Amino acid sequence: MTPSPYPPTSPVTATDWALLVFMFTLAFLSYWLPTILALWRHNSRMGLVIFVNLGAFMIFPWVGAMTVVLGEHSRRPQPPPVWTPEQAATWAPPPELPQPPAELPPNVTQLRRGRGTPC
Length: 119
Fold this sequence. Notes:
Layout: H1 14-40, H2 46-57, H3 59-70, H4 85-91
Helix pairs in contact: 1-2
């Protein structure tokens, strides 16, 4: 049997268990206190209290975190583009493309007219 890479742990004492129970009870009661009070007092807006209590735990922090993350531009460094002469030549227009004529031939109708020209 291979030895564990983790150091040996001390046994869990009664004090540890009491502290664990106290922390979970405190967290549970502090979070659910509005819902517990709404149910106990038969509040007419009980559903709204439960909805807001759940939303405060899950929805609002998620929306807030997404707003913070997506609202700011990325600061990740972008490497500068590196162009080789071969890549630059592939992006340049080929010299054998025909150039547009300076004036249209008489048998070609101009599709775009200026604002002041009659129809």
